Task: structure prediction
Amino acid sequence: MPQVFIPSLMRKLTKNQEMVEVEGITLREVINNLDIQFPGFKARVLYEDTRLAPGLAAAIDGVVTEEGLRTRVSANCEIHFVTQISGG
Result:
């Protein structure tokens, strides 16, 4: 199962777990399954249930995804939700 590493500011939603394993073959399925286990997770990471929230990115096996929620994930991948850095 994919391993999802939970940012410290979201750990209240996962009962302070730093990492959880959850089923899914796309990023959307992983997020939906996380929300089943930990209600409120999806509302925290998605914007209008259609894309990742502004300022948030998902890195799968160390690579920030450009495909959004339809990104396919493997059974042994690592998923990290990271804050996007911007500035000038």
User: Anything to note?
Assistant: The chain has one domain: 3-83. The chain has a mean pLDDT of 92. Residues 27-37 form the longest helix (11 residues).
